[in-house]
Structures are given as C-alpha cells and as structure tokens.
Hints:
Helix content: over 70%
Shape: rod-shaped
Protein name: Chromosome partition protein Smc
Mean pLDDT: 92
Keywords: Coiled coil
Oligomer: single chain
Low-confidence stretches: none
Coiled coil: 29-60
Organism: Roseimaritima multifibrata
Largest sheet: none
Number of helices: 2
Number of strands: 0
Distance between the termini: 31 Å
Amino acid sequence: MAVKTKSVAESHADHRHWHSDVTCWQDDIQNWQAEHVTAIEELQAALKRITEHGKSLEAHAQSVAELEAGLSQHEKSLAESLKGGTESAVDETLDKQHLKQAELHQRQQDAHERIKKHHHTVMAQVAILKAALEKAV
C-alpha cells in the first residue's frame, strides 16, 4: 500500500488536529482522575456501611435466636399448663405471655422483611459493580 505524500501545510494541519485531540484527552484524564479519587472515597464510605450492615445482620441473628428461645420457653409453659389439667383455657399470665410473643414475632417478621429487601438490593448493586470492574478496558 502506497503512502500518500502530504504537503507541509497538510502535515501542519494534521499536527494541529492531533494536538487538539491530545488536549481533549488530557482534560478527560484530569476529570477521570478527579472522579477516581471521589469514587475511592465513596467506596470507602460504602465499605463502612456494608461492614455496619454485617453487624446489623449479626444483631438480627441474635434477635431471632432470642425470639426462638422465648418461643421455646413459652411452649414449655403451655405444656406445663396442659399437665396441670387446664387444657381448654390458658391462664391470664400465659395469655399475656402469648400476646407478647405474638407482638414480638410480628415485629421480628417486619424487621426481617426490611432487612431482606435491603440486603438483596445492596448485594445486587455490589454484584453489578464487581461485574463492571472486572470487564477489560
């Protein structure tokens, strides 16, 4: 393939165009570097929030375990009541405990659904970010 010879004026025009491109590229790089610094700061803040989310998950697990223990204790109390021959009616104390267990269960269920929704949303966004970062440039 033969290379076409350019005039000096055409060569100078090419150089002006190329210098213009380089200037634009340098501006882009400066902007990208500033965005990169901001992204690092935002990711560090996000990592802190994800770590806090992990602590919230641990607290939620502990709360569920405590709820289960209370449920088991209440069930034992009901079984003892049955042994005492009060099969048809629950005494006032057990009835109050049962209402309290029902309230605790509902609050735990509501909390669990909020945490689940939040967790799935966060994990999906992390997966999207990870996939984007793993793509070749």
